[in-house]
Design a protein that fits this description.
nine-stranded mixed sheet, 9 strands, 23% strand, 286 residues
């Protein structure tokens, strides 16, 4: 049995580490005082590593010359996506090719924000990178696997198999699906299938079915920035493929910490919406 002991709890129901422990500088998300996450604050890395003026350092590389997504040895840090959603490369909205039923579900979700992630359910795909306190990459070449750890939310992790294996034919659908990856230059390409329908795959309201197939491209452009791109292929919910992207920012000094998602939860707005704006005539089903 593993015993996790959380620290204090923030205004939006996410446990925060005690001040001063393990180099933590407090939450990497701010709130609007009403239980809603606003965004990751401006990071020192936007002006140069650890607040130094000048351009960001180049992306770290391993002995083979390939870029690494982990933090450099001896330099702890995490990746923060904020509360952004998928957009086109120029930041403009995506014209999502909904099927009629999927568009109706998306509209309902906009009005009744019953997102499973706010009740500590795992979320695959883009949503994993847009969680409180960010994510951490861990590549283990000797195992030919990449791990992506959620810091907030359900505090779970996702496995990317890097050994060239195919997707299994009998994989049981789950929250993170079955993920196989490979490198194309400095870009990690992840191909994933085998998802269940119990989560939202981004911070938007886009539904999906068990036919969901995602291709993710993760590119570390320099020390402080990752470009995340994804192609959504779900013939059960959309009339054609569509793509989107956002950026992740590096927060030096922050580390993975012990966490219990629902400890003394103070996030009714995140779970139920704001006061009378939400229809509570039916029970919440995870």
């Amino acid at each position: 049995m593993i015993l996790l002991i959380a620290g204090s709890t923030s205004a939006f129901g996410q446990a925060t580490p005690p001040a001063g422990e393990r180099g933590q500088r407090g939450p990497t998300f701010t709130t609007n005082g009403n239980g809603g996450i606003v965004d990751a604050p401006a990071q020192p890395g936007q002006r140069g590593q650890r607040g130094q003026a000048g351009p960001p350092r180049p992306a770290p590389r391993g002995p083979d010359g390939r870029v690494i997504l982990n933090q450099p040895p001896g330099e702890p840090g995490l990746w923060i996506g904020g509360i952004t959603n998928l957009t086109k490369a120029d930041g403009s909205p995506i014209n999502v090719p909904y099927q009629p039923w999927a568009q109706a579900v998306a509209q309902d979700r906009r009005q009744n924000a019953f997102e499973p992630h706010t009740r500590c359910k795992p979320s695959g795909g883009p949503r994993q990178f847009l969680t409180p306190y960010g994510v951490e990459f861990l590549e283990l070449p000797e195992l030919q696997r990449m791990f992506i750890f959620d810091i907030g939310g359900p505090h779970t992790f996702r496995i990317i198999y890097m050994d060239g294996r195919p997707h299994p034919k009998d994989f049981p659908n789950d929250y993170y699906g079955h993920n196989v990856g490979h490198w194309e230059g400095d870009t990690l390409v992840i191909d994933s299938v085998g998802y269940n329908e119990k989560f939202w795959f981004d911070r938007g309201t886009h539904p999906h079915t068990e036919k969901l197939h995602m291709i993710e491209r993760i590119t570390r452009v320099d020390m402080n920035n990752i470009r995340y791109e994804v192609t959504i292929d779900d013939p059960g919910a959309y009339t054609s493929q569509w793509s989107g992207q956002f950026n992740l920012r590096y927060v030096p000094g922050d580390e993975l910490f012990e966490y219990i998602c629902q400890d003394n939860n103070f996030a009714p707005q995140l779970m139920l919406g704001v006061l009378e704006s939400v229809d509570r005539s039916s029970p919440i089903v995870p």
